Amino acid sequence: MIQPAPESADRSSTAQHAAIGAMSGTEFEAYVCGVLRSNGCLVALTRVTGDFGVDLVARRGAETTAVQCKRRAMPVGPDAVRQVVAGAVMYDCTSTMVISNQTFTSGAVVLAKRHNCVFVDGSELAKLAGIWWPDAEGGRAANRSASRGSGAWSGNWNREEMSMFERFTRSARAAVVLAREEAGDLNAREIRPEHLLVGAVQSAGHDLSALLSGYGLTADAVRDRLVAGDGDDSFERDAEALRSIGIDLHAIRDGVARTFGADAWDDAFRKSGRRRRRRGHIPFIRSAKKVLELALREALAHKDSTIGCEHVVLGILRGGDKFTLSLITEHVSESQLRESIVELLDEAA
């Protein structure tokens, strides 16, 4: 519980720093929750376990922010960014934030800029807190599971799934983060299964990486195909989306070609900087989210205690996205790749 400090209370930053330093991790989350609410946010705490690296979900206006709280004795590193960016997709958040009583390392700052993740360090948190103060009578030590009752953020996952996602491996989380980076680099409007493929191949462990590269299925090979085919692929996706509201993009392109020449359309996009990296929130489309669900199903089916990049690739195969499968089958058949990965999982069991 967060309460206004008594008038006689010492409100110096030193005293606040000491008070926060004495908190447990869960108490710090409750403190941050109160601070955000005092600043006009609607805040829900996530589950105690299986939170995907997101401690709070804060809403203000149309923006929904995934928040990770880090009470530390040392500066916070880049892992905090990777965790909250990967977890944000599970809560359909439009932005990410890491709040800490400490500062952030240079590596964390670089990664945060790349993913547009907002940092709130100890001094900024003190400004946000204003006169709000941890309850001196122990209210701040409220049981986390009690505070996460009927109002807790539950998402769309059942208990079994949440328990499994708690054991999402570091490499699998990295695959999600890298998928977002890939989509941004390609100026994509959403994160699709093909971006998850690049992320999974790039963050794969030694054994899986050796298996995939043996078939010629490398991150560079897939990325080259995405870059080479991005123009036509993006145009067709745009055309399909606009068709639903009565706009014929093919007819517009043909009209531009008749008036200004056959290459005018492509030249216009090249000159407009279309290849600049897309920033801001890039959502996962349904088929990409489905890949993550199917990765979970694959782990359950194989009775594996963790969800790794092997399961993500199996989820991609099982998801059946035609374009992504075509990127794979240029190197190896679906059935052969599945058999090889299953064999790899069996050997590791």
Word description of this protein:
- With about 350 residues, the protein is an alpha/beta fold.
- The chain folds into two domains: about 1-155, Trna Endonuclease, Chain: A, domain 1 (3-Layer(aba) Sandwich); about 165-245 and about 280-349, Clp, N-terminal domain (Double Clp-N motif, Orthogonal Bundle).
- It contains 17 helices and seven strands.
- It has a five-stranded mixed sheet. Strands 1-7 form a two-stranded antiparallel sheet.
- α3 (about 80-90) runs parallel beside α4 (about 105-115), α8 packs across α9 (about 195-205) and α10 (about 205-215) packs antiparallel against α17 (about 335-349).
- It is globular.
Got a strand count? 7
Major β-sheet strand ordering: 2-3-4-5-6
| Helix content bin | 55-70%
Give the overall shape. Answer: globular
Major sheet attributes: 5 strands, mixed
Low-pLDDT stretches are 1-12, 131-164
Q: How do the helices and strands follow one another from N- to C-terminus?
A: EHHEEEHEHEHEHHHHHHHHHHHH
Strand content: 5-15%
CATH fold-level name of the largest domain: Trna Endonuclease, Chain: A, domain 1
- Report how far the terminal alpha carbons are from each other: 45 Å
Count up the domains.
2
CATH class of the largest domain: Alpha Beta
What does this entry show, briefly?
By secondary structure, the protein is α/β, with parallel strands linked by helices.
